[in-house]
Sequence to fold (106 residues):
Amino acid sequence: MTDREDPSAGFWITVALLVVLVGYPLSFGPACWISSRTNSGARSVQLIYGPICTALSHVPILFSSAVRQYVNVLAANNWSLGIGGDDQWTWDQDVPFAGVTETILH
Fold:
């Protein structure tokens, strides 16, 4: 039999950091899907995922398009991620310019 040591604090910090760095962005899609299907929580999604929405204005078109498609893929038909009236990325029903965000941003 071998003696196993308990995982160190450094190990658990690394695990927690990976969960946050990978889990937070990946949970954006499901949060939007749930919000659209329950027809509620759009403001909460925008608040919690505000850093992602802000970053979308500063990344290449290919990346922002991929994120938008990921978020919209299982959303209710009238919900989308697009540019709102304040020229900010918005998650809501019938977002203006939802189909042409790439040409507006870049």
